[in-house]
Amino acid sequence: MTQADSEEFFAALKVKPGVTYSPLLVESSIERLENLALRKGIDFLRVEPRVTRNDRDLTLDIEFALTRGPRVFVERIDIEGNTTTLDRVIRQKFRTVEGDPFNPREIRRTAERIKALGFFSKSDVDVREGSSPSLVVVDVDVEEQPTGSLNLGGSYSVNDGFGLSVGLTENNFLGRGQRLSFAIATATESDEYILGFSEPHLLGRDLKFDLDFGLSESDSSFSEYDTKRVFLSPALTFKSGESSKVKLSYTWANSEMIARADQSYSIVGPPASTGTYPVAAPTVQNEIAQGELSSSVFGVTYSYDSRLTGLDPNAGFLFEIGANYAGLGGDSEYLKATPNLLRKDRCLTKR
User: Fold this and answer.
1) Which residue of 45, 270, 290, 301 has the lowest C-beta tally within 10 Å?
2) Architecture label for domain 73-144
């Protein structure tokens, strides 16, 4: 039987003396130690945090006790209440399968992941004794809720005339957990179409695939030029930790500004573009003279979201940092960074 080396487990801890106490930090430390035990082949290891208050110097002493729990296995996983959502969409949120050692903390994590899907108004995950004391049955009881939205709108402008916009989004398409969206914005002299699709578990793996496609055109008699634009944007997102993920994206776009042929004014441009065009601002003239322009943008985004984990549901933050590079193909070249930080916590009063 494999024994736990206390020094090796102590070295894996990220909690150090002098840092501010945080339930989230303790929770993540327990998870780190339990994952280390699994990598070492030590099953049924339990990490029990023992906290001692020191009121005189306002500090806390934390002892992580490594104990061997009872030898209990998962007999089966029962799912009920999912009238639309397929069983496999819920099972994909489990890191435990039938026959694995029972880990109460992992079951609680699974309940959080099922709730985070947003497909259910109620999602309860309970454990009961199985056919013998050494086996347990995990019961998942969910209640479906609407997962789609329909947006309708109208507009009027002098340039484009009357317009109508329709947007349809379904986040659980055919109960497969996939996102399918379609948006149309059409007016007398302009049209825009956008189609989006997401597969959260590509090839059965914890790998999210996104694909967005869009097309827009304008042909306004009130404007001195027409425009056309088309774009295609695939992306892959994978987890780098329980609360962190990395997104790799690519966007190709082609746009063109075309002078209206029914105007009788002239501008000077490159030989291929010199001709009869409308009088326009120098910036617009330059765009028309360049003809079709394309861009090829590669992007990477790292995000860490602690709002759905930890012991305090009112505390947490979302941190994102990304970079986009254009230059491997296309007519533009640039590098852009986009940091973002969103906090969600209660107001604390120091006294």
Assistant:
1) 270
2) Roll (3.10)
So where are the chain's domains? 6-68, 73-144, 148-343
The CATH number that domain 148-343 falls under is 2.40.160.50
Q: What is the pTM of this model?
A: 0.72
CA–CA separation, 30 vs 36, rounded Å? 10
DSSP code of 20?
P
Mean pLDDT lowest among 60-69, 105-114, 204-213, 274-283: 274-283
CA distance 219 to 226: 5
Q: What percent of the chain lies above the pLDDT cut of 70?
A: 82
Quick one: which of 72, 74, 79 has its CA closest to 119? 79
CA distances from 157 to 59, 154, 167, 224 (A): 65, 11, 20, 16
What does the alpha-carbon distance between residue 248 and residue 240 come to, in Å, rounded to a whole number?
13
Would you give the DSSP letter of residue 281? -
CATH for 6-68 is 3.10.20.310
The one-letter amino acid code at 120 reads F
Cβ pair 224, 240 in contact under 8 A: no
Q: For helices 104-116 and 23-39, give the axis angle rounded to 10 degrees.
A: 120
Same topology for domains 6-68 and 73-144, yes or no?
yes
Using the structure block, give the residue that is written with the tokens 């943008």: 297
C-alpha span between 265 and 72 (Å, rounded): 84
Q: CA 273: distance to chain centroid? A: 44
